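Entry 12.
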Amino acid sequence: MFLSVLTGLGLLATPWAATAASKPTNSPALTVHIKDYKYAPKTAKVRVGDTVAFANDDDETHTVTVTDGTFDSRELKEKARFSHTFTKAGTYNYYCKIHTQMKGTIVVETSKKGAVQ
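Predicted 3D structure (tokens):
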């Protein structure tokens, strides 16, 4: 019971690691896959309020770290996932702290439900 309360409050790591600005969800607007030392898609657009999932499909540990400090997945082991809900419009450039050549961008546009095409 205590563990489920901590998990529900986002105070205990789950397969969908969460931070104060992140919140787990079962249906992300977008999933960014990490494979072969790349983020795919490398650049994507979503709307304010959308959740983006990051899935480590690689055999190596990676991170998803925004350059301005907005969020950091910490280390994502093989098959681990992380999600973040974007609450502000803007451009979010991110990279892997372990393999700094890995870079990606999420562009968040003002809210109208659903991923931007």
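Annotation: Residues 29 and 114 are 6 Å apart (CA to CA). The first helix runs from residue 2 to 8.
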